[in-house]
């Protein structure tokens, strides 16, 4: 719950500038992560469930960041954050279906399918399947948490969620997402912890986790406190590899100063 962002930025500038200059990068867009033979595949699913990949050419087995965009599960689109480019990583920007065209819980299904796709295909883009980090902002942070914490989801693709190298949600819900609650007529001020809440799946064998939120006084309703409770319960459960940072002075849109924390986390756990 402390911030050392400036130290991390200086560290990363010194250590990565020469490395990044040696690599050239390629972007491939609109790759479908559901096979064409998927039963019941709809046109909306075919259009939304695509990903973009930004990766270094000429270097194999680089760490991978699967990134989910924010937007409350109702808006936004796939993105590759500029701050993650030129760092020697393979970045996967994921699109997913949105409420109200589908139930918000469907977003979790899509996120899981995208992570599974990365495990099975990322070597084609110089990524290391043994070094996949799952991250995202706001709704994207929630999806990252759900896809990994609920082990049963990736297990459907014959993937052990514990093979994820690291989990780094930015300002993600750890209770049931407010859009899922809204679909049930539950107000945003009423917290729910059920099978659509990362807190429901607290366990001591989860991948190394870095929780990042904005300032508790500037964040969205209770977002810091949710993450603090998730952190505490993970520690109580016996998870030793979890850290929480509060980006003091920043609100919910705290991605820019938080990206160096993600990069340093990957350097420490790749």
UniProtKB/TrEMBL annotation:
Annotated GO MF terms: hydrolase activity
Keywords for this protein: Hydrolase
Record has Transmembrane as a keyword: no
A Pfam match: BD-FAE
Keyword Glycoprotein: no
Start and end residues of each BD-FAE-like domain: 51-216
Transmembrane regions: none
Protein's name according to its UniProt entry: Alpha/beta hydrolase fold
Native organism: Leeuwenhoekiella marinoflava DSM 3653
């Amino acid at each position: 719950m402390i911030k050392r962002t400036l130290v991390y930025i200086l560290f990363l500038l010194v250590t990565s500038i020469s490395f990044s200059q040696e690599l050239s990068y390629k972007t491939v867009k609109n790759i479908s992560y559901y096979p064409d033979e998927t039963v019941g595949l709809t046109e909306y699913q075919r259009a939304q469930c695509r990903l973009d990949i930004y990766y270094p050419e000429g270097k194999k087995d680089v760490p991978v960041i699967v990134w989910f965009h924010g937007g409350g599960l109702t808006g936004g689109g796939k993105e590759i954050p500029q701050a993650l480019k030129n760092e020697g990583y393979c970045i996967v920007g994921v699109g997913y279906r949105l409420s109200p065209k589908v139930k918000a819980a469907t977003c979790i299904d899509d996120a899981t399918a995208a992570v599974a796709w990365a495990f099975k295909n990322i070597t084609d883009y110089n990524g290391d399947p043994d070094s996949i980090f799952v991250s995202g902002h706001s709704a994207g942070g929630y999806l990252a948490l759900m896809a990994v914490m609920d082990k049963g989801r990736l297990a459907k693709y014959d993937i052990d969620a514990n093979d994820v190298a690291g989990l780094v949600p930015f300002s993600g819900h750890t209770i049931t997402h407010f859009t899922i609650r809204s679909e049930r007529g539950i107000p945003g001020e009423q917290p729910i912890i059920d099978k659509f809440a990362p807190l429901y799946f607290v366990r001591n064998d989860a991948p190394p986790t870095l929780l990042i939120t904005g300032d508790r006084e500037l964040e969205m309703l209770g977002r810091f406190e949710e993450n603090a409770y998730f952190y505490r319960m993970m520690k109580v459960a016996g998870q030793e590899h979890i850290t929480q940072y509060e980006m003091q002075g920043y609100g919910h849109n705290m991605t820019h100063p938080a990206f160096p924390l993600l990069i340093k986390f990957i350097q420490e756990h790749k």
